[in-house]
Design a protein that fits this description.
Oligomer: single chain
Structural class: alpha+beta
Strand order of the largest sheet: 1-2-4-3
Bound molecules: flavin mononucleotide
Distance between the termini: 42 Å
Number of strands: 4
CATH superfamily of the largest domain: NADH Oxidase
Radius of gyration: 21 Å
Strand content: 5-15%
CATH architecture of the largest domain: 3-Layer(aba) Sandwich
Length: about 290
């Protein structure tokens, strides 16, 4: 283990929170329904695996079963392949028109499970997901956004300043769920593998988790908006995030009736989207 390896230590309170988060119903009916639903969607083996994970986390002694080491490379049908590309193409950053209905815990857990399955350097899994539903907490985060956004707006002048102020850049209060994704920059897990030369890889791993969640959410009909116009220290203070833990993402999540066909920033005339050919090089950087 590298000398810089002290992990995100769990206080007793935090461990309890993981075993039975406040936002999660504590009944076994909840666990049962999730496992049943998962079995229907992904098949028995996967459901068993998630179910065991839950049982283990809940202290019921569930153990991960041995899973097959390989899966067949041709296992996705043309329709399934098409579906994943459609999810990718139709994912949007959503900041408006969230429906008021709650995101059920089983749906939220599915998208968190997708996030938790992301690749990570050294299998460090350096992320942690803070689910925020409390309106008073969201009010405090919104106030932090407003302060930061005011400072950001002052950096623009003239027409661009007016255009900036017209943009909708967050959905903190209108989305029923917010999620803060944080990262332990020096995880003990993974024993330093892959981050001796590029320590930033742990944060990149956490961003992979965010992207998994974003795509899974799109498949569930949930809009996700990433808000980066907040001082990390403000989030630290509101959400009791330790100083050594990096804030990676603050996300607004909720059901929406429609996803825009193109990015809001394109529609607003703020920025255009690059064609793929502009960013692919042959053999050398910039060679085109
Ligand atoms: C790391 C990151 C931070 C972002 N921060 C914000 C933000 O603070 N406010 C906002 O309105 N959009 C934010 N976005 C969303 C981008 O503006 C959006 O992804 C981009 O315009 C492309 O649109 P699309 O995601 O709908 O395809 C962020 C996206 C990323 C990946």
């Amino acid at each position: 283990m590298p000398p810089d390896a002290p992990a995100m230590r769990k206080s007793a309170a935090t461990a309890n929170e993981i075993a039975s988060p406040r936002w999660m119903p504590r009944s076994t009916a909840y666990e049962r329904s999730r496992t049943t639903d998962t079995r229907r969607r992904y098949g028995r083996a996967h459901a068993q695996e998630i179910g065991d994970g839950f049982a283990a986390r809940l202290g019921r002694g569930g153990r991960a079963r041995k899973k097959p080491c390989v899966t067949r490379s041709e296992e996705f049908s043309a329709e399934e392949r098409e579906a994943i590309y459609r999810v990718i193409a139709s994912r949007r950053d959503v900041r408006r028109d969230f429906r008021a209905d709650e995101v059920p815990d089983d749906v939220l857990l599915r998208v968190l499970d997708a996030a938790h399955r992301a690749p990570s350097v050294g299998l460090s899994q350096p992320w942690r997901f803070i689910v925020v539903r409390d309106p008073s907490t969201r009010d405090a985060v919104h106030a932090a956004f407003t302060a930061a956004n005011e400072r950001a707006a002052e950096r623009y002048a003239g027409e661009q300043a007016a255009a900036y102020r017209a943009l909708r850049l967050e959905g903190i209060r209108s989305a029923p769920v917010n999620l803060c994704v944080v990262c332990d920059d020096r995880p003990a897990r993974g024993h330093g593998l892959g981050r001796q030369t590029m320590p930033e890889m742990v944060r990149y791993s956490t961003v992979c988790a965010v992207q998994n969640l974003w795509l899974a959410a799109r498949a569930e009909g949930l809009g996700v908006g990433w808000v980066s116009i907040i001082e990390p220290d403000a989030l630290r203070a509101i959400l009791a995030i330790p100083a050594e833990i990096a804030v990676v993402a603050y996300l607004c999540i909720g059901y929406v009736d429609r996803f825009a066909a193109e990015p809001d920033l394109v529609t607003a005339g703020w920025e255009s989207a690059l064609p793929l050919a502009d960013v692919v090089d042959r053999e050398r950087y910039g060679a085109g």
